[in-house]
Structures are given as C-alpha cells and as structure tokens.
Amino acid sequence: MSERQLLRRTAEIAADFLESLDERSVWPPASVDELRHALGGPLPDEPVDPLVVVEELATNADPGVIAIPGGRYFGFVIGGSLPAALAADWLTSTWDQNAGLVVGGPAAAVVEEVAGEWLKELFGLPAATSFAFVTGCQMAHVTCLAAARHAVLEHAGWDVERNGLGGAPPVRVFVGGKRHVTVDRALRLLGLGASSTVAVTVDEQGRMHPDALEAALADGDGPAVVCGQVGEVNTGAVDAMPEIAALAKAAGAWLHVDGAFGLWAAASPKLRHLVEGVSEADSWATDAHKWLNVPYDCGLAFVAHPEAHRAAMAMTAEYLVANPDAARDQMDWTPEFSRRARGLTVYAALRSLGRSGVAELVEQSCRHARRFADELARLPGCEILNEVVLNQVLLRFSDDDRTRAVLDAVQRSGEAWMSGTTWRDRFAIRISVSNWRTSDDDVSRTIAAFEQAATAS
Ligand SMILES: *Cc1c(COP(=O)(O)O)cnc(C)c1O
C-alpha cells in the first residue's frame, strides 16, 4: 500500500461521510461506553498497517461522529467547513509547516499576511490594525486583552511585561452582565481576576446599558478596559457600539469587542448597520471556525494599536533565526510559539466566496433564522424569546418541562440537533444557523421535526 493509495482511500472515506450528511442521524447513535469499547483496549505493542489504522478508526469512530458539517446541526454557534477550506486544511496538514516564523514556512507567512489584510478590509477595521490567527475566540481575547493590559498600564507609567502585575496600579475591567465566559477566563489568565471586573447591567436581550456603563466608569479612576459584545451567544444581541465607544474614549479606557460571530455582520452591506460604530474599538476578537466556515480551529485577533499588540506578545531567543526578508513572523503576534499554518483555510475560504459570497453566507444564515422564528412561533405554546437580529433564535414551549420534552424529542428524532440553555431563569431552546450548507429544505425538515415533537409532547 503506497502513501498515495492511503491518501486516496482516506479521501474516499471523507467523501462518503460528507455524502451521508443528508441521511444520517444528526446526533450519532453510539453511547460513550460503546465508543470506549470500540476504540479502547491496551496500547498496541506492534505496528499496524496505516491503511488498517485509518479504516478501523473511521469505522469505529463513525457511530460517535456528530453531523456538525451538515445543514441541520444548530448547536451552540458552530459553523461547517466550506469545500475550499476543507481542502486547504488537508494541504495544511500535508505541508506541515511550522507557521511561528517565516523561516518555518515562507508561503504560510505570506498567505497569513494576505488573509489578515483581506479580513481587515472585510470588517472595515482601521488600516493600521494588526492581527493574529489563533485557536479560537478564547485565545483571541487573551491576545487582545494582553495588548489592552500593556497599553493601559503603560499609560499609567507601569511596564507590565517587565514588572508583572505585583504592585501595578489596579486595572478596572468593565464587562456586560451577559458577556461570554471566555472573556472572564482570558482576564484570569492575564492576572486580572474576578475582583477586577465590574459587571454592567444589561437589558432583556443581553445588551449592556450605556447609562450603567457611564455610571460605572465615573465611579473611580485609573487604567480601565471596557469589553463590549456584538452577538450575545443566546440572543445574537449587539451592544450599542457608538455610545459605548464614546464612553470608553471619554474615560480613556481601552475598548475591546467580543465579536466571535457577530463581527461578521460587518461583512454584509445589508447587516453592517447592526454593528455600526464597531470600528471605533481598540481591539476585536472573532472566529473563523464559526461563521466563515473553516474547519476547527481558527480564531482571529485584531488590534488597532500594533505597537501594544507586539509589545504584549513578541519574544526572542538567540536560536530563532531572523527572517531574511523582513516579513511578518507570526509568533510576534500570537500567544503560540510553534503553530499550525492557520491562514491557509481562511485564505481559501475568502478566495472561494469572495466579498459577495461572505455577505451572502451571513445573510442567508440570518434569513433561515428569521424563518425559524416566524414558522415555529405558530406552533402551540411556542414563544420566541429574542429579537431575531442575527442568526440566533431563542424559543420555549409553555413551561420548562414541555420545553425540555420538545427539545428531547427533536434531538432524538435525529433530524436536527440544537442545545438548551437558561435565559432569564427559564429553560429555552437555542437555534444557531451558522453553516453554509443549511438549505431551505434543511430548515423545512427541522420545522417539521419541531411540529411533530410539539404535538407529541
Ligand atoms: C463562541 C464564542 C466565544 C468563544 O469562542 P471559541 O472560538 O470557542 O474560543 C466567545 N464569545 C462568543 C460571543 C462566542 O459566541
């Protein structure tokens, strides 16, 4: 068996999986115990032929693989994989470049430079903005907030890279009451614990109250960071960016934005108004593995002040060969050292869609979400809990028990999968439309599954 034959067979297995997406149960049949039984056992002593390894892995894992790349998976906020991005991901693994340094892969470095500039243009970010391709929005927060920490403390006369946080002026961090937990964890990793954060009250959609932010900012002084949000993970709600940006600016605070999926609205001329003012921020964290539909994992950090970004991240050592062409060494901008050439899938996705294709992908997801809200609202007892501004629909049926029963029945039907949540102390169902593959037919099939579940429950 040649390497070529192995890769050919693997491509066949992959294509078979993709072609099964329409028919297979979205939630897979095997229990975790069954998977342990099929995949476990002692560490093998002897080598096994690679083809046997791949065939057996595919066969044994298949009953535990969720149809996430398919059009009827609406869980959390999870995109699929565009064909060009999936193929570029295979090349990324095949080429196996170490994209930390230009000397670890010049093409990987250049592709990342190009894709980073394309993204800035797509989002309408300031020309000087620097960027980093990281593992997800979580690490994008870490990257951006490290730059924020550097800048606000430098302004207060404190060198945090040299002196750490011991003895530093306290940094106040203002977050919305419905921020994503990854913001808190990023702050924790940066030495800014829960007692540094001030949770600003939010409205019934999860949007920060600008008045409350203004009052909180006025209640003290010193280095400050404000974390706004475009796209609340349940409702899709967007903070009032123009007001929040003006308040942050007036208070001399750094404004960071969590736009894990919501920032993509800026890529659509029709939806851009929803995130108006977002370009006023100092840093932005978003994901490519959600709405751009590249395979896991890929997050994106943008910083309007490249010198703060670089000061927070850059490191050097004697053995790290300076790159000959003064190109961009990625590790000067990322928390990772050795790293996957993450720019390749983003480059491929953007080239395959073009500017209009990205806009259409985002708009199409929002249209599907709108249709879910309109048609599900007609089912007995169904209540749509959010203003459907983006791709998120939050709904419930009569009471917590019935809502759980309907969700259970839809999940068990295998027709679609979405998760539950608690919103304002009540159990709710979240539908997130983030996959390029979701079609009108997928939406119809999912609505039918809800109809059946709602009549049975
Ligand atoms: C998904 C999400 C995150 C975390 O992103 P990861 O890519 O999973 O690290 C942060 N904020 C919001 C609003 C999200 O939806």
> Could you tell me which ligands this complex binds, including any ions or cofactors?
pyridoxal-5'-phosphate
CA distance, first residue to last residue: 54 Å
| Helical coverage, percent range | 40-55%
Low-confidence stretches: none
Helix and strand layout, with pairings?
Elements: H1 3-19, H2 32-39, H3 50-61, H4 83-95, H5 106-123, E1 130-134, H6 137-155, H7 160-163, E2 172-176, H8 181-189, E3 197-200, H9 210-218, E4 224-229, H10 241-250, E5 254-258, E6 283-287, E7 299-303, H11 306-313, H12 343-376, E8 382-384, E9 392-397, H13 400-413, E10 419-423, E11 426-432, H14 440-456
Parallel strand pairs: 2-3, 2-4, 4-5, 5-6
Antiparallel strand pairs: 1-7, 6-7, 8-9, 9-11, 10-11
Helix pairs in contact: 1-3, 4-12, 5-12, 6-8, 6-11, 9-10, 12-14, 13-14
